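Hey,
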Amino acid sequence: MSDYIDLSSYDPNDIPEGKIHPEGTEVNARISHMIKDKDKNNTPYLMPWFEDASDPNVEDWSDYLPLPEAEASEKENGKRLRKLKAFDESFGLGIFNGQFKVEDAKGAVGWMIVGIGKDQDGNPNNKVKKYVVSAA
């Protein structure tokens, strides 16, 4: 059996360029997926990946959310908890309501202000500058 693909119905000249939002743009973002892991320093973290809910040509971006841990200082844990709280409130996830399943975050929509950083290849990419929490 032959393993091939047929993309002849696509014209490479018609493929839209990926784009990013300008610095300071407020974006209605949707969580496409989220991972829970440990970094190279053995710090547990969440990493949500976001997509623009209204524009499929905007490149996805992510955020690093370190989780509180006994080995971290009170100051560091406070900083981590404040960022987690803003993320949680922006997306309405209920992270602080007990057992939170990471996979349940997929599809949640929230607001944020984005900045511009670089991806792993050094190309410009959006990054979370601030989670926007509604005053409801």
